[in-house]
Write the structure tokens for this entry.
Amino acid sequence: MIAASEVLANASRVVVFTGAGISQESGIATFRSPDGIWAKFKPEELANINAFMANPERVWEWYEYRRNVVEDAVPNPGHLAIVELEKIVDRVDVITQNVDGLHTRAGSSRVYELHGSLLKHRCLDCETPYEISGDEEGVPHCPKCGGLIRPGVVWFGEDLPEYEWERAVDATINCDLFLSIGTSTIVYPAAQLPFMAVREGKYVIEINPERTDFTRYADLYIEGKSGEVLPKFIEELRNAKK
Ligand code: BV8
Ligand code: ZN
């Protein structure tokens, strides 16, 4: 299945860039597939600050629904294969667009959440982190300043967290193997990363059941579900290293 086994044999620093597709087999709907989240709501309608200011209750409810979905979900063989990867190469940087916390729950030790997390919240005004109890009635208010509490995700039109973005760019520039898994490669600036890896001369493998805007630039495209492909891929990598 893998054309360039010498790349795998010498891989020491691997970047694993993931999107909603890697959580699909954990039962979490992706964004842009026909049954995806955005099929019912448009991102502009809900995943942005204006929607929240216009109707905090509605947006809050939607995020609470999604938080409950992800808290009930469990990491799938795709997430677990990435944890296994840490035993085979020197360093794995997981750069995720996902907000479901599943890489961390699976046991990955270096995870950068470019788009924040459904499990984190903060005050809209003073930015104080807020620990959710789960039995809030409606949108909670900041105990410090009374401001509205918002989900700790990056909304459209908002900048990505500086530290995570810098780590992501640094990891992309310094890796020797870049895996792009389960992303439609549409949302920027995150979608720049696989293209940056190509420009930097890295070996880039894309794993996705469908081709994307990026596929033609990848060194290798593996068609399939990450929960099925990744365990086999990691085995091949382990053998290539023997
Ligand atoms: C910003 C958190 C600067 C919230 C998210 C026009 C052109 C270019 C850019 C723009 C533009 N207009 C606006 C922009 C900028 C905008 C953007 O990129 N828009 C896109 C839609 C065009 N970006 C931003 O606004 C970003 N900020 O630019 O700041 C700035 C500042 C001020 C003013 C302007 C700009 C912020 C982007 C972050 C938004 N937040 N999430 C929430 O979750 O509610 S984005 C959201 O999309 C998720 O994070 C998600 O991860 C992300 C990307 O989607 P994917 O993960 O790729 O998921 P998708 O469903 O699309 O694809 C799933 C894939 O999995 C598919 O390919 C499928 O085939 C595959 N799959 C399915 N099953 C499996 C599988 N793969 C493997 N195994 C399977 N089993
Ligand atoms: Zn506050």
